[in-house]
Write a structure and sequence with these properties.
With about 170 residues, the chain is mostly helical. The protein folds into 2 domains: about 15-55, no CATH class; about 65-165, Alpha-Beta Plaits, CATH 3.30.70. The chain is built from 6 helices and 3 strands. It has helices at about 15-30, 35-50, 50-55, 65-90, 110-120, 150-165, and strands at about 100-105, 125-130, 135-140. Strands 1-3-2 form a 3-stranded antiparallel β-sheet, with helices on one face. A hairpin with a 4-residue loop joins β2 and β3 (about 135-140). The longest helix has 27 residues, at about 65-90. It is globular, with a radius of gyration of 19 Å. About 15% of the residues are buried.
Length: about 170
Amino acid sequence: MNTPPKTPAGWLSHPVLSLLLAAAWLLLQQSLAVPQLISAVVLGLGLPRLLHGFLGPGARLRAPVTALRFAGIVLWDIVLSNLTVARLVLNPASRPQPAWVPVPLALTNPTAITLLATIITTTPGTVSCVVDEARGEILVHALDCTDPAGMAAQIKQRYEAPLLEIFG
């Protein structure tokens, strides 16, 4: 059985994850006191090192500026989707039209595909159900969709295109 060689677990094998963990800790603690800063450093450096075998190799971002802009777009879409779903659910006169939407994928990077599926699922009103590698598509369920082809095009333009630029 051929197994890929294991890369050694370094202290900064996943630097973005380390920064996110440390920042999340500080935000949760709502303090920049020395003990909290030390805890943030320990968590940021220690957890990725402990979980190295589960995390796999770190992904290389080819366009960090695009990644930051993309994060803003995703956060904005999540806020708007929350408002849209709330309006749909709370309005007794609304008649949502659920639909299954197949979205063809140009992405091949497993991390990028996983991120796309996660973004779709965390955006209220949509759920990614299946990533069909044989067909090269992701199947999305939408709470309210009158134009499945238009929704697929929007997912490709808004999410997949930046991910292609970021991950190559």
